[in-house]
């Protein structure tokens, strides 16, 4: 059976962004709090003991914490977060930077299966978020080789955010979770009168790679990881190819707004409460992380250059379209006239591209 032909239950669950595609009837609702025993900082690892064991179809309400909360600890941290910062020493926050919640073991998941993750709701934990213009940002050299933090204030009534203040950082952001003493920093006004749309999403999520030891959360890959696509929010469904028994799925790097490219190095980083459903699938397979939204199918490509990433995304979309019965030549033509190729991010070392195509032009695609 192909991806497009898979059958699902007729039940629909309403989400922040509207109805998702029909849901498998949920079994159990689990709560996964971000406490020291349930988090890992900077890595995926196939040898990690699970923080939670679930069945296919279960719902999980999980806490995802931003490692940039220390940019203003008064506004972005609570006692539970301070406890995590104290429990995990700086020396154990490696080789990546993201604070991950999990891993979640899905019973009976085996390598080669697909893990379907339906993101149902993403709710900011605080009113505030932080953007860092970082030394890994695209224009760091061009803008004087300095780092700058901008703190944003969320307005739930208008679903927008505006800059509260900004400050320059005089030491490079080298320690994941660094805490800045903002009451003593040189605060400056920023972006007066401007508002940006709030669109909560996860920058990093994925299954454990089949690799010995720790795998950095910084680069994206076939396991998922730091994809940084702002469309991975409420109402979206992601498909990850399982690489180890149990899948060992983790979430982290929560954002409340980001543009394609993420060129300063970060989004508006802000902690989220995330509701999602995990479903084990054996009726189709796909090589790379696949995103389904109410309007589009989106594939992702990664590489050392945008040329490589764009070609990987295009090839995977070609493969997806061929499942509808199109020939390679017809699919190639359709990609050129209807596919949208974009830059996902340029700041994670391994850069990302995505290709999207409208669901309603595909003759055999499932309808929500």
UniProtKB/TrEMBL annotation:
<protein>
    <submittedName>
        <fullName>Acetamidase/formamidase family protein</fullName>
    </submittedName>
</protein>
<dbReference type="GO" id="GO:0016811">
    <property type="term" value="F:hydrolase activity, acting on carbon-nitrogen (but not peptide) bonds, in linear amides"/>
</dbReference>
<dbReference type="InterPro" id="IPR004304">
    <property type="entry name" value="FmdA_AmdA"/>
</dbReference>
<dbReference type="Pfam" id="PF03069">
    <property type="entry name" value="FmdA_AmdA"/>
</dbReference>
């Amino acid at each position: 059976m192909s991806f497009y032909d898979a059958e699902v239950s007729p039940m629909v669950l309403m989400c922040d962004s509207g109805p998702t595609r029909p849901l498998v009837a949920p079994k159990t609702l689990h709560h996964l709090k971000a406490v020291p025993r349930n988090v890992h900082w900077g890595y995926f690892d196939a040898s990690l003991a699970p923080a939670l064991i679930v069945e296919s179809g279960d719902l999980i309400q999980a806490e995802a914490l931003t490692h940039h909360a220390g940019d203003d600890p008064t506004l972005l941290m609570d006692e539970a977060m301070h406890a995590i910062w104290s429990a995990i020493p700086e020396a154990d926050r490696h080789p990546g930077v993201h604070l991950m919640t999990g891993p979640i073991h899905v019973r009976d998941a085996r390598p080669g299966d697909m893990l379907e993750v339906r993101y149902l709701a993403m709710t900011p934990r605080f009113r505030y978020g932080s953007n860092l213009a970082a030394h890994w940002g695209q224009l760091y050299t061009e803008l004087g080789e300095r780092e700058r933090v901008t703190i944003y204030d969320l307005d739930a009534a208008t679903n927008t955010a505006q800059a509260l203040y900004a400050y320059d950082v005089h030491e490079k952001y080298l320690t994941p979770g660094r805490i800045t003493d903002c009451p003593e920093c040189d605060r400056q006004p920023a972006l007066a009168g401007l508002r940006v749309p709030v669109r909560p999403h996860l920058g990093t999520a994925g299954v454990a790679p089949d690799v010995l030891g720790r795998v950095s959360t910084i680069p994206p890959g076939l396991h998922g990881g730091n994809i940084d696509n702002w469309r991975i929010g409420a109402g979206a469904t992601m498909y990850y190819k399982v690489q180890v028994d149990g899948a060992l799925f983790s979430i982290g790097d929560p954002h409340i707004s980001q543009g394609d490219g993420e060129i300063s190095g970060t989004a508006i980083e802000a902690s989220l409460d995330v509701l999602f459903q995990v479903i084990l699938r054996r009726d189709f397979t796909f090589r790379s992380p696949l995103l389904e939204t109410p309007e589009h199918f989106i594939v992702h490509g990664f590489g050392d250059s945008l040329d490589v990433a764009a070609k990987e995304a295009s090839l995977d979309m070609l493969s997806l379209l061929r499942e509808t019965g199109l020939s390679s030549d017809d699919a190639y033509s359709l990609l050129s006239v209807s596919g949208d190729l974009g830059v996902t991010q340029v700041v994670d070392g391994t850069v990302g591209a995505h290709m999207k195509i409208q669901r309603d032009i595909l003759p055999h695609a499932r309808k929500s």
